[in-house]
Amino acid sequence: MDLEDAFGKRGCPVCTLLKRYDVRSLDSLLYEFVNDIAVRGEIRQTLGFCNHHESVLQQVATDLSSELLSGAAGDGLEAIGIIYLDLVETLVNRLKSGSLIRSSPDSNRVGKNPKSETSVCPLCNVRRKLELAYLEDILRSTVNPDFVAKCMASDDLFAIHLIALLKLPGFDSNKRALASTEVKHLEDLARDV
């Protein structure tokens, strides 16, 4: 149902759903789970979020704090402060213990992202699984004429999502039908441009 609704909105339906996931997850984190031991442990383990999710977190916290001024919600900036303080204390403890210092043959290489070597943003990990599930749902749903009609009436899939969908195993006839729909959209776009 979410996927069908997303095809009715402007933009790539998969991107729309992934953005909604990001905002809802971070809103829940700040509003309900900021003091949850397991959730904070996962954030602590990865030393925070990727740049993308960090910026979404900032926006969600700011929005929550704005709602506080109108009396509608909790303080998002206070919640984000709790998370950041925990991360700073975790980093200090890891630096003091030496657990972040590793010697290896390529340890003198500059330009490597140390965070990417040891951890994955907790939201990116789930987001990748959701993205794959949405793409598989699109493929399975292309046998439904109502779904195909919504697909044709909507904006196109983002090119990266279209290519990823076409590379999934199976559903070859569904892929050809979806590719034909996308060709029509792209030809219309080319004429407009």
Q: Specify the oligomeric state.
A: single chain
Approximate strand percentage: under 5%
Uncertain stretches: 69-73, 113-118
Q: Give the helix proportion (percent range).
A: over 70%
**Count of discrete alpha- or pi-helical segments spanning 4 or more residues:** 10
Rounded average pLDDT: 82
Largest sheet: none
Compute the gyration radius: what is it? 21 Å
H-E order: HHHHHHHHHH
Class inferred from helices and paired strands: mainly alpha
Strand element count: 0
Q: Which term fits the overall shape?
A: elongated
- How far is it from the N-terminal to the C-terminal residue, by CA? 33 Å
Number of domains: 1
Structural write-up:
It is a single chain. The chain has 193 residues and is mainly alpha-helical. The protein has one domain. The chain is 74% helix and 0% strand. It has 10 helices and no strands. Helix 2 packs across helix 4 and helix 2 runs antiparallel to helix 7. It is elongated.
Short key terms for the protein model shown above:
single chain, 10 helices, 0% strand
